[in-house]
Specification:
Elements lengths: L2 H16 L5 H16 L3 H15 L6 H9 L2 H5 L1 H16 L8 H12 L6
């Protein structure tokens, strides 16, 4: 894997491994990628670790419709009515502008990785 692409993946893996918005499965997958490339940095090993990470990330970024549903439902009890309304307004605007996925740091990192490797379209 070229250095530029490796760095691109590594930056997003760093986000996924520590983000409060990442699920434990996502954090574990990101950490497994880091451990795998630290143990063997050959192109084949990095590409294998990256493929495994991408397999786990598929289907994980929350869709824009999922974020909207969250803002319309449980967000109010979790964050308060005002924050939920603001979230809903922002996400509806993003959807109008063509956004397909959640814009939290974890979903952004995951969707960027998946798009970079042709697994989804942004």
């Amino acid at each position: 894997m070229e250095k530029e692409l490796f760095d691109y993946v590594a930056e997003r893996v760093d986000v996924l491994s520590v983000s409060g918005a990442s699920t434990q499965v996502t954090k574990d997958a990101a950490l497994a990628w880091k451990e795998a490339v630290a143990a063997d940095s050959s192109d084949a090993a990095v590409e294998d670790a990256t493929a495994k990470l991408l397999d786990i990330l598929e289907g994980r970024p929350t869709t824009i419709d999922g974020v909207i549903a969250f803002a319309q439902g449980p967000a109010a009890s979790m964050f308060g009515e005002e924050a939920a309304a603001k979230m809903l307004e922002e996400q509806l605007k993003r959807k109008e502008e063509g956004a397909k996925y959640c814009n939290c740091d974890a979903c952004t990192a995951a969707s960027e990785l998946l798009a970079k490797f042709g697994r989804i379209e942004l």
